[in-house]
Structure formats: C-alpha cells, structure tokens
Design a protein that fits this description.
Elements (H helix, E strand, L loop, with lengths): L9 E4 L10 H4 L7 H7 L3 E3 L8 H13 L3 E2 L2 H7 L4 E2 L4 H12 L14 E5 L8 H4 L2 E2 L2 E2 L4 H18 L20 H5 L4 H4 L4 H4 L2 H8 L9 E6 L8 H22 L3 H23 L10 H13 L9 H4 L8 H4 L37 E4 L19 H6 L21 E5 L14 H14 L12
Parallel strand pairs: 1-2, 1-9, 5-8, 5-9, 8-10
Antiparallel strand pairs: 3-4, 6-7
Helix pairs in contact: 3-5, 12-13
C-alpha cells in the first residue's frame, strides 16, 4: 500500500471507551487504531487519548492541550456548572466538532480561528446522537434510577473509584477522567442522585438525539472547512470457516473424553492431537478476522432497532422508520450529518457561540497555528432539518436526507466538485468498528481519506469555487 503523506497533521480522536497509544491490560490489548498501517500510510498524524466517558467539552479541552501543550483547563464557568474539578490531565467525531467550535471561538485565548482546521472527518460518528442511550434508560437529560444504564454506570463508577485509590488497576483500564476525582465516596458514585450520575457533563448525555440537535443548531463556521462522514451499515457476514473449526474442536474434545473414559487411549490421543492442530488453525484465522463485518454487534443492533419502534416522539419530526437502522451502536441516519431541529434554531443574526456546551465537534490542532486535518471515530454532514417543511413531520427526515449530495468524496473523479461547508458521505459495509484496528479494511479506508486530503483539501484555497 503506497504512502500518502499529508501536508498538515491528521489528528485521530477515539470514541467512548476508546484509548490512544496506551492500551488496556498492561498495554497488551490490541490497539484502537490500525497503528502500523497508519505509520506506513502517513506518519504525519497524532493519536490523542482523552476521557473514556467524559463530555465532548472536556474531551475537546484535553485534546487541545495534548496537541498545543500545557495543563488542561476546562474553564471556570463550565467546571462550576458541571460539578467537577477545573484542572486535569492533558469522545470521537462529536468531540472533534466541539474542538473545532472551541478553536473557532478562540476559547483557549491563543489566537485560534477556523483556519487552524483544514477538514473534519467522522467515522461512524453520532453526529445527531444515538437512540442506544434511550435503550439504557437515559431520557430528557436524566438517568432513570435503577435502569440498565444506572446499573452500568454504577459498576463503571465503582471501577473508577477503585483505580483512583489503587493506581495499579489503571493498567487494566483507565477512564482518564481525573476531573471527577472530587466524587469521593462509593455511595455518591453508586447513587442515582450522586454528583456524577446527576451530572449531564458526561458523554452519554451529549449523544441524546434531542440535545445533540440543539447543539447542532448552534454550530459556527461550518462553511469554512471540508466535511466528510464515513457511514457504516447493518450488513454482516457469517464467519462460516471459523464456526466450522470451532465445531471440529468440540467434536475432537468430546471424542477424546469418550475415548479415554472407555479405555480407547489411541482414539483419545488421536483426538487431542487433531484438536490441538485445529485450535492452532483457528487461532490464525481469528487473528485476521474482520470484526467489523461479522455479527459481533448484532445483538445490540437488533435491540436498538426494536427499541426505536417503541420510542415516543423524542424530538419534533422523529421518524421511527428512518432511525431504526443502525450499526450496533449509532443510528445510520445520525451519521449522515449533524441534523438540527427547527425548534432549537437560534435567532438568524445571532453570533451565539455556546462553546462550553457538552456537545461535540470534529477538529484538531497542533503547536503550529496552521491548517490541519482531523479524523475521528465516530462525524457527518451538514444538511439540516431546519430547511425541511414543518407541515409534514413524517417526511421531514426523508426530505432533508434527499438534499445530501450523492457524491463519494473519496473517488478521485469527484475531487474537483467538493466544496467547504457541505457534508459528503462515504459508505462502508461495516459495523461500528469501522476504521479501527478490528476492521481489516481500515488501511484502505484511511488511504482513500488521505488521498482526498492531499489532492484536494490541502490544495484548494479558501473561497475558491468547485469546478
């Protein structure tokens, strides 16, 4: 695979429960990104490591200071409202969006503006949120006590408390959320009314569709950068060979047990020999298995699809048919672009920049005050529900979706037609693991993205018109 080195740095922001260069299990777990392939394709990239469950605002601040240098400052007003510590250590697509908003508004007071970011790329990003949050029991910015989400949150909170007290446990998995160390007791962590579970300054609340749409209505300077969303699918392939090998191993094990128990030592020994050989072959296949194509997230996919059909009108214009399809974590319609609700549209002449909102943004920065590219796991397009007629709510999403350009931004023949401020969609038949180490086709995906960056994004002057 040929190298495609970009002029400006590419920044990669992981998603919820993701990680950067430092891997779980004493650094022995698989990398999050296809690091070896990225090094060969384009060594001009940065992998940042931010809070596993922190809000977009907090993650964006952490990413900025990792790239720019200095100690993380979340902002005094934001910290008081959120209820966590103001300072801490140096969530994907939406975090990139939030970072872009903070950079455009010069939130960090370093003279930043939109020119610091050349492009935003979202891979399976919940640009308009995800209904998986409702499945877990989060509604209208509150956690339903004793719901599935509450129990999951309490369990994770206990782990967070344990690895805060015994740092050695961070080698197993580190949440990287020191700003919440002010939540000191186990009772407060487990209680649905505790400071952490009551706070909306967490990733899960940032991807509630209605809240995400409110934030999307406030995005600024989106017409000044190139926008790409990699949209996944509900497509799966069955790993028949691996299933057959597992079946053979079980047959050999049962045969060996029967052989030894009935005195047929030769049969037992023969079966153990073949089961060992089959296990070795199975191990080789599992190591190269494409987890982004097999039904690894299919149970969650079916649960989300079924739950969407039972949801109430979670926002004005919500269409269950459109929102049902998902990749096992995020609704496909949400990935297309950051849709915005007409209800939440700000005043036309407003210059409002709610940069301390716990929403999301896809962008990046470096110590250079020059343009750069940004890739994130989970961002999408910019057609917006506000432009669709309010009289036909059922067709609202479909009408707006029809305005998305049917133009694959990674096809060289389309490069000259790409312009800033429009979300372009590249589709892949993968689940939510697309673009990660667990996707065997991720190197090819990144090569296509790097190619459009080098051949068009970096060579097109600001203000120029598409051909």
């Amino acid at each position: 695979m040929t190298s495609t080195v970009t002029k400006y740095p590419v920044v990669l922001l992981h998603g919820v429960f993701g990680y950067g260069k430092t891997k779980p299990l004493w650094n022995m777990w698989s990398p999050y990104w296809p690091e070896q392939a990225l090094d060969k394709l384009n060594n001009n990239h940065f992998i940042v490591q931010v809070g596993a469950l922190s809000s977009d605002h907090d993650r964006a601040c952490e990413a900025f200071y990792q790239l720019y240098g200095g100690r993380v400052d979340y902002g005094d007003d934001h910290s008081r409202q959120a209820g966590h510590n103001r300072f801490g250590h140096s969530f994907g697509g939406t975090t990139a969006l939030e970072l872009y908003q903070l950079i455009c508004s010069d939130f960090f007071k370093v003279g930043s503006n939109h020119q610091w970011v050349m492009s935003l790329v979202s891979i399976a990003g919940p640009l308009t949120g995800s209904t998986v949050i409702h499945l877990f029991g989060l509604h209208e910015l509150r956690m339903v006590p004793y719901s599935l989400g509450h129990f999951i949150g309490a369990t994770l909170g206990v782990w967070f408390k344990l690895h805060t007290q015994w740092p050695v446990l961070r080698h197993v998995f580190d949440f990287r959320m020191p700003q919440w160390q002010c939540g000191t007791t186990f009772r407060e962590i487990v209680s649905p009314y505790g400071r952490i579970n009551r706070s909306t300054d967490l990733a899960v609340f940032n991807i509630l569709p209605r809240e995400r749409m409110k934030r999307n209505a406030q995005l600024i300077d989106m017409d000044k950068t190139f926008l790409v969303s990699v949209v996944t699918s509900s497509y799966v392939t069955i790993p028949r060979a691996e299933i057959a090998l597992i079946g053979l191993v079980l047959v050999f094990i049962i045969t060996a047990a029967v052989g030894f128990s009935r005195g047929y030592a030769a049969l037992g020994t023969f079966s153990i020999f073949w089961s060992t050989g089959t296990l070795f072959g199975l191990k080789q296949r599992v190591q190269v298995l494409d987890y982004a194509s097999i039904p690894s997230l299919y149970t969650l996919l079916l649960l989300i699809r079924r739950h969407v059909r039972m949801l109430h009108m979670i926002f004005d214009g919500f269409d269950r048919d459109v929102w049902g399809e998902n990749d096992g974590a995020v609704n496909l319609h949400s990935m297309l672009q950051p849709w915005a609700s007409a209800i939440d549209r700000p005043f036309e002449g407003s210059t409002q920049r709610d940069t301390e909102s716990t929403a999301s943004t896809s962008s990046t920065l470096s110590t250079l005050s020059e343009s750069m590219q940004l890739d994130a796991v989970p961002v999408t397009g910019t057609v917006d529900l506000r432009s669709a007629p309010r009289s036909d709510e059922k067709g609202l999403s479909i009408q707006a979706e029809s305005k998305i350009p049917n133009l694959d931004p990674t096809e060289p023949a389309n490069f000259s037609q790409l312009r800033r401020g429009t979300w372009y969609v590249h589709r892949v038949n993968k689940n939510h693991m697309a673009g990660t180490h667990f996707d065997s086709d991720s190197p090819a995906l990144f090569q296509r993205l790097f190619r459009v960056m080098v051949n068009h994004f970096e060579t097109t002057p600001e203000g120029s018109k598409p051909e």
